[in-house]
Amino acid sequence: MSPTSEPVAFKASCPDCRARFELDAGALRLAIGGSRRTTFYSFTCPECGAAVRKPAGERIVELLTGGGVSTLRSI
Fold this sequence. Notes:
Elements: E1 9-13, E2 20-24, E3 29-32, E4 40-44, E5 51-55, H1 58-66, E6 70-73
Parallel strand pairs: 3-6
Antiparallel strand pairs: 1-2, 3-4, 4-5
């Protein structure tokens, strides 16, 4: 069995309610834009329901795409 066939869990936290949790790739969205301001990942907090958006540097983009998170590329 290859390592990529196992589900990946990403650790995350909510800035609103301060909860910490793990999310699978399907719960995250990654937007890759032309600048740091337009490259981010987002999710909905499973504890309080807040929409969370956080910046994604090169390493985060690499980890999320490698873990199967769906990606939207903008021009």
